[in-house]
Amino acid sequence: MGVINGKDFIDRINLLKTEIWYDGKRIEGRISEHPAFKGLLQTKSSLFALQNDRNLKGEMTFLSPETKDPIGLSYLQPKTKDDLKKRRKMMEHWAKYTGGMMGRSPDYMNTALMSLASSSSLLKGKENCFPENILSLYERAMNQDLTFTHTLVTPQVNRSQCYFEVSKEPISARVIDRNEKGIIIKGARLLATQGGVTDEVLVYSAPVIMDPDEAFAFSIPSDTKGLKFICRESFVGGESIFNHPLSSRFEEMDSIIVFDNVLVPWDRVFIYDNIEASRDFMLKNSFQHNAFHQVLTRQIVKTEFVLGLAELLVETINVGEYQHIQEKLSEIIIGLETMKALLEKAENDAQLDDWGYMRPSLIPLQTASLIFPKIYPRFSEIIQLIGASGMIALPTEKDFQSDIRTDLNQYLQGATKSAEDRVKIFRLAWDLTMSSFGTRQTQYERYFFGDPIRLSSTLYKTYPKHEHVKLICDFLKLKEK
Fold this sequence. Notes:
Layout: H1 6-15, E1 19-22, E2 25-26, H2 38-51, H3 57-60, E3 61-63, E4 70-72, H4 81-98, H5 106-118, H6 131-144, E5 148-151, E6 174-178, E7 182-193, E8 200-204, E9 216-221, E10 227-231, H7 247-250, E11 254-265, E12 269-272, H8 275-284, H9 287-317, H10 323-348, E13 351-352, E14 358-359, H11 362-387, H12 397-400, H13 405-411, H14 419-433, H15 436-446, H16 452-462, H17 466-476
Parallel strand pairs: 1-10, 5-8
Antiparallel strand pairs: 1-2, 3-4, 6-7, 7-11, 8-9, 9-12, 10-11, 13-14
Helix pairs in contact: 1-2, 4-9, 5-6, 5-9, 9-10, 9-11, 9-14, 10-11, 11-14, 11-15, 11-16, 14-15
């Protein structure tokens, strides 16, 4: 079958019997019609439609060697640098459609699954490991164009370094039993973005685990019996694109996943009861290389979106002659060009791994993943500073359809824009930086790949520093010990 269209995607998600809880009630009926999910699912539907666009199909898909069906390019296992660039071009198309606002567009999890499959040989011969199940899922996902969420974060009960869970009932999801049918999981996991509105949920352990009962990886359908998604409050401000240009279309729900004695069939299990294999697989597979590559591609598009909006604000109220404004816009430009240079270096320095797949260079990608969480909040602040008090008192779409439109046209016009267009621009700036949707975006980018301190520590420990130390030792003619 290969790539699906937008209608097929919506129909498939509506047919699931997923247990989703929102605002104290279990959601019944068609999930695509629920106000908290309607905009998100319509946007994802449009992304699938792009894969079938005649003018883009060559840049969005590749032909399956086995079935000759078109497959989404985000599933492509790259074997050359050109393959990396093809994947990036496809990801750019989806990112530009959302302005880079959708952190879990389908290509992110497609990339994750492709990476696990490409590195599945790491698990061959290991106790309680089933690499063939990863490959089976990868093939099924490609051929059916499945969508995924994922979860690896444990509940934040006690984050001290010496904490060990001693609760009678599991808090963090863990294996509580094994039988002829599979493993039984009980407990909870955070933080599943788009949880409940994807075909499947991919579950795996973080590299730092001490308990073999928490060392597992698997994927199961979202409507598996005993699986429950508990949603946060929605940040959709309303259906009006005029009033809420971003949240009405790109709000991604986050959820807690509760496993209430969930049976994971053996043919769905990748790893269980093996701490070493679980840890080594997550550290040595190509997930980081390829996921960072996808995320950096999206973040560059998002920065271009921010720059375009910032410049449009400047033009609308005619403040471009001020040097402090020019300096602020230059900050965004510097960030953009830095990220683009790191992406290019990651692709140029890519190398084949032990299984013949091309991995983008990790160090520039790690560097970018540490830069963006610092500069994105500043970008948000710059938008706020340029908009100033103009970001506060903003009329709505209905105001422009009322008897006060004449007043609005007179008093809210911009130097280069009509009142209505000026308000549209400022409402976009508000939704990006000051609404609940916008502030979630900032927090989301801060912690996209986890704790920045730990990420910095990893970069320090893995960076090849010896040659630089040797240069100084040679310069000072120091004697080796």
